[in-house]
Amino acid sequence: MNKLLLSLLLLAELIFPTQIFARADVKGSSEHPLLSRYPDFHIKQYTKLEYDEAEIMTGAYHYKNKIAATKTLEGKVTNIKYINQGTGMSVTALQLYKNYEKALKKLNATMILSCRGAKCYVNQARENGVFINNWLNKRKLMYKGVHANIGSEFGILTAKIADKKGGDIYVMVTVGVDLPNKRRTILMSFIEPETLDTDKVGIGSPDDIQKGIEQIGKVELAGVFFDHNKATIKPDSKNTLDIIAQYLSANPSNKFFVVGHTDNTGSFDHNKTLSQQRAKAVVNALIKLGAIKTQLTAKGVGPLSPNAPNKTDDGKALNRRVELVEN
Predict the structure, then answer these.
(1) Which of 160, 156, 149 is nearest to 34 (CA)?
(2) Which of 21, 62, 175, 254 has its CA 20 to 30 A from that of 226?
(3) Interatomic CA distance for residues 326 and 258, integer angstroms
(4) What is the per-residue pLDDT across 75-122, written as a single tens digit (0 to 9) for each?
(5) Edge-to-edge strand ranges of the sheet holding 168-178
(6) Is residue 168 a contact partner of residue 160, using CB atoms and an 8 Å limit?
(7) Could you tell me where the DSSP H helices lie in the chain?
(8) Shortest CA distance to 294 belongs to which of 324, 259, 257, 261?
(9) Mean pLDDT, residues 225-249 taken together
């Protein structure tokens, strides 16, 4: 996807030129590589979730029934609220809408919903954005963590963009202008395909490890997580790794295999290599935390020792694991 991201970033710079912004972005926020901000807007609210549910609008709003067609998705979710208020800016909702419509088309996006004002309502019964704005803020999964302020003049763009990995990235952009308050708002939601490796709870204490070793000679290192199809340990594994390191430090004469396992997705050779790399990554992380190098030996067995059938996603999730096995 590197070439795609590069082209998107170049496109964003062409459509929305880089410049110094009047207000600082909220701490910890960043632009999404697919779409940039409109000049002179700053990030007011921002959420980025590694894996969650999200909702996008796929049809016009029924004012009478107070509902619109939506689609619920799962994956990596990024929500951004850009704002410009009280700066004397004269940009209109139509300008914002047309710029983002053009940007999406340049990305070869498939448009799901594209409407402005009255056309965002069934039978064009209304044209003020306040009704849809209130509905958006009541939807728990739509722009989660970001408050909508789309104003009386507004437009909505929902689209999907093909991911070269074979999935689709869904995007919802809502632009609005509130003239009385001199406020202009851009809301963006990005839902990207992401595999949830596991939902297992991490090891709670060194005693949990000791019990597993005493009972069956091994313990699954639940709470050690990797990037999808990679041997990169995720930052949220730190607490579990700290606990394992504490156990090893308390038992310096004990030796263990760190054994990596995979499901059967992909070739055997790839899975065997991946499991070895993951086991080695855990060993290296534990040594950095104080474990004795001679205590640990990394072994990867790929899909050879499953915990469950590989016929379902749940079964595959159980099979992707790393274990500490008594040597």
Answers:
(1) 160
(2) 254
(3) 9
(4) 999 999 999 987 777 899 999 999 999 999 999 999 999 999 999 999
(5) 42-62, 67-85, 183-192, 168-178, 153-162, 110-116
(6) yes
(7) 2-15, 93-106, 130-138, 206-216, 238-250, 268-288, 313-319
(8) 257
(9) 92
Whether 206 and 246 have beta carbons less than 8 Å apart is answered as: yes
Q: Which CATH fold would you assign to the domain 206-326?
A: 60s Ribosomal Protein L30; Chain: A; (3.30.1330)
The angle formed by the CA atoms of residues 284, 290 and 296, to the nearest 5 degrees, is 50
Identity at 318, one-letter amino acid code: L
Taking phi first (over 0 means left), then psi (-120 to 50 degrees means alpha), and beta for anything else, what does residue 133 get? alpha
- Extract the tokens encoding 207: 């005693």
Q: How far is CA 74 from CA 15, 17, 20, in A?
A: 30, 32, 35
Written as six digits, the tokens of 12 are 């964003």
The residue type at 149? N
Q: Parse the chain into domains and list their residue ranges.
A: 2-192, 206-326
